[in-house]
Amino acid sequence: MTFQPCVPILRIFDFAKAQEFYIEFLEFEINWIHQFEPDFPRYIQISKDNCIIHLSEHHGDASPGSSIRIQSDDVLTFTELLRSKKYKYNCPGAEEMPWGNIESSVNDPFGNRLIFYTAR
Prior knowledge:
Layout: E1 9-11, H1 15-25, E2 29-34, E3 43-48, E4 51-56, E5 67-71, H2 75-84, E6 95-96, E7 102-107, E8 113-118
């Protein structure tokens, strides 16, 4: 018996704001979008390398204010890239944690926190 990496579901409320943050700022890509009808909520899969996240506009799929941890082999370079974009809603820094990881935390427009880290 084996397990695969889990795929978190994060609650979003506005598709355009989610695109601005996740696609333009963090540089994830949209893999697919599911929507029952044109004006119904969307359920979206995004990815960046091996990291997969689901975003849902559906009430009850997830709670805003969640936190997820995403491992990277070079969080410092990623943080520098994000800072260079001068995104007016987020200017992340990176810090070495007491347990040795380098971590950078960003909050999405919906209250979710993404903690990018490089393990040491």
